[in-house]
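Hi Y.,

Following your request, here is the sequence exactly as I used it, all 189 residues.
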Amino acid sequence: MLRLSVPFLACLLAFTMTTNSSADEHECALNFKATTIDGEAVDLEDYEGKVVLVVNVASECGLTPQYKGLQAMYDKYKEKGFVILAFPCNQFGSQEPGSEAEIKQFCSTKYQVNFPMFSKVDVNGENAAPIYKYLTSKDAQPVGAGKVSWNFEKFLIDREGQLINRFSPRTTPADAELVKAVEAELEKG
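Below is the corresponding structure, written out as tokens. Let me know if you'd prefer a different format.
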């Protein structure tokens, strides 16, 4: 009769679990590079360890006043490990027509935005930024997978870089469901 040691069985089990798990389990929503609004290349993996809210933004949208709520949320939670990554986008009604310098000026003077902002990107289609191709491919509740529907759609990423929630553009930063999700992730910290 063949006798297997406990350490051997543990290694065999670990190997079996690793080889049978899907690649998606080990993917990270932050395994991408982006360019800041000031033109600096950034590795988004630098944000791992933080609770991250990714938002596509626009300066001439009816939802633009959400900048105020986003800044308040950032101010409230940043010391606990929370960050907002804003990606201007001109794909919805051409509501972000300005240059990076104009967008930065508008956001900093009108809404005192000081969370990280990135250069203008597409969030849908063939030319979508890689992070958005990844985020929109995942089934994150309550919205689910698929195209970004409008400006100010929100994706919540946990400290390990896993996408955990997706909220519609009309979900404001003060919405109870969004706040509860952010606070729950921060408490795990």
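The domain at 26-188 is CATH 3.40.30.10 (Glutaredoxin).

Thanks again,
Q.
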